[in-house]
Amino acid sequence: MLQHGFVRVAAALPRLRVADCSYNVERILELMDQAERRAVDVLVFPELALTGYTCGDLFHQPALQGAALDALAYLLERSRAWYSRLVIVGLPWLVGDQLYNVAAVCQRGELLGVVPKSYLPTYKEFYESRWFTSGRNLVTDQIIWPGQRRVPFGTDLLFADERRAGVVVGVEICEDLWTPIPPSCLQAIAGAKILVNLSASNEVIGKASYRRQLVASQSGRCIAGYVYASCGVSESTTDVVFGGHGLIAENGNPLAESPRFQRDDALVVSEIDVERLQNDRQKTNTFNDSLAWMQGQTFRRIPMLLKSSTGRLERSVDAHPFVPRGEEQLAERCQDIFHAQVAGLAKRLEHLGKPAVAIGVSGGLDSTLALLVTCKTLDLLAVPRAKILALTMPGFGTTGRTLGNAQALMQHVGVSAREIDIRSLCLEEMRALGHRPFGINPQNQTVESLSAKLMELPIEQRVDITFENIQARMRTSLLLNTGFVIGTGDLSELALGWCTYNADHISMYNPNISIPKTLVKFLVRWAALNEFEATAQKTLLDIVATEISPELLPTAKDGTIAQSTESVIGPYELHDFFLFHFLRYGAPPEKILFLAQQATFEKVYPAAEIRRWLKVFVRRFFVNQFKRSCLPDGPKVGTISLSPRGDWRMPSDAQASVWLSWANGT
User: Taking a C-beta distance cutoff of 8 angstroms, is the pair 6, 317 a contact?
Assistant: First the structure.
């Protein structure tokens, strides 16, 4: 997994006995053993896990201090032969005359470094300053560990696997996170992409929710992974109750969480994608601007070495990253996007004096969504829907189902509808150009005779780009001469270049321009059920169920679709998956293939087929950049856009060889 940038991390929540270091270290070793079997790379235990957090004035007892160090020595010795991962465990440590609350960072039986807690809460139920000294007040930057070199000591330590760019770990302890400027902020600016927190956060009403929010927010603010391990119910005593809370988040997104109030040991496991984090930091220039806050502070990098592992990820990989999983979240997302589309189009039409608009309606998903958005926009502007000229323009590949749905939809929503059969116009253009569609001489053909001959053609002979382009451009030509043209093409089509230049590629404003195909379907369904009356719902839901096709090639003999988009360019759910990871995180094809397998696509598509369609995606994406270099305006509604004025600037003549070599596995 490390070759794809994934570091497996875990928050370990052991049962313990307060002040019983021998018992506690055995529980810690048991969880270390479980973590080893699950190939965990970075394992984090709670604050003061070797002694327990609630020891009170016992912390000043030399017996407890010595027992904690003995337990650490025992842990290192026991794990030397079998535990090769990075483990971080809490204990009290006397340095000179000062006692510190520290995190000991260990690997392969060696103590790599010791990080003291910076901020000591001494308010309400907390009394830490009674026992400990802040890590901001150090008497030395190293300590002696028996039988070993001097060990780095301080809040300025980062732990880095220098073989792998970005695998850098920063450590803070409990209250450090709750301060206005947590130490992890500076650690992140200095290069740490995995932040860990050893905690002893007690439970009061509402605190778990805030803690969850705090961890996710800090991971987002720092563009980092964050692992949080807080002690469990066995710490509960006198006036405080602890629930045990393990949390893992990445760049604002929760990845894993433990149930609270468990009475047994618990291990919360997931992976942090450091390559993804590195890509986001590169793109977010303001992150590097934060270096000014360092004010001369430097960090010592302590070498470590993580062990590569294989197998499935513990974290889930969403097969449909543009589509939220839960029904409630999906409905909220659809509502936000639909209203953003309406708001963007309304601003443009208002600026132009609310002109008459024109839109082509095919009976397919994209034109349906654009029409629904246009209707709601005119409602918002208090303009009659009759000011929308909706043209349905059947051609040689139009089926009765899509034409019927287009006619019904236009009637349901109350626009000015008009039907123009473009076949005769296209036939005249073919004659003028001397084009022989599929080898048929058009000079002596009528529309009916040509259509009949085309329907007799074997499927494998239905290849004629000029025949398709003439129809597509004829429709756009008619639209451009009737009013302010609303575009309909979506993000997925633009990524693949599945549009005809200066045809469906061109409009005066396109509300669908940053919406992927997989989401268009859900948006139409949501709009049908939430924004339009029951009379339109049946038609809209049938449009959702219709096979995706440009309908530019002749229909089958029975009048049904003979040109399936997905059979030519591949499944849109795969292409949207490829697009998301390629554009959002800069993932190379080899990693995208790995993620597709983790997303269980192999249960639907053989591995060879996924690889095949990924090659298609890469080739088409590079070859068709020239179409994206001159796109119309349209609202950015998600994290990904291909607008040449916004998120994506790419030379039209760039070569794809580097990406195709990855896809080929060479």
Answer: no
- Sequence-ordered list of residues with C-beta below 8 angstroms from that of 549, at least 6 positions apart, any chain: 364, 397, 561, 563, 564, 565
Query: DSSP states of 515-582 as a string?
Result: --HHHHHHHHHHHHHHTS-HHHHHHHHHHHHSPP----SPPPTTSS----HHHHH--HHHHHHHHIII
User: Which of 468, 469, 436 is closest to 453 using CA atoms?
Assistant: 436
The two tokens of residue 522 are 């859900």
Of 440, 470, 472, the closest CA to residue 455 belongs to: 440
Catalytic residue positions? 47, 117, 174
What class is the 327-563 domain? Answer: alpha beta
Radius of gyration over every alpha carbon of the chain, rounded to an integer in angstroms: 31
**The CATH number fitting domain 9-303, selected from 2.130.10.10, 3.30.450.40, 3.60.110.10, 3.90.1170.50:** 3.60.110.10
Amino acid at 158: L
Tokens of 374: 């246009």
pLDDT, tens digit, for every residue of 618-643? 999 999 999 999 999 999 998 899 99
Burial of 58 (0-12, 13-18, 19+ CB in 10 A): middle
* Per-position DSSP letters for 362-390, written without gaps between them: -SSHHHHHHHHHHHHHHHHTT--GGGEEE
- The span from the CA of 280 to the CA of 171, in Å, is 21
Q: How far apart are the first and last CA of the chain?
A: 18
Of 561-565, 605-609, 650-654, the range with the highest mean pLDDT is: 650-654
List all residues 6 or more positions away from 545 whose beta carbon is below 8 Å from its beta carbon: none
- Find out whether 461 and 553 touch, Cβ atoms under 8 Å: no
Partnered with residue 227 across adjacent β-strands are 196, 248
The span from the CA of 112 to the CA of 124, in Å, is: 35
**Does residue 273 contact residue 250 with C-beta atoms inside 8 Å?**
yes
Domain boundaries, the chain: 9-303, 327-563
The angle, 0 to 180 degrees and rounded to 10, between the axes of the packed helices 517-530 and 327-351 is 90
Q: Quick check: do 9-303 and 327-563 share a fold?
A: no
Strand 168-173 to 388-392 pairing: unpaired
Tell me which amino acid residue 171 is: V
Going by pLDDT thresholds of 50, 70 and 90, the confidence category of residue 165 is low
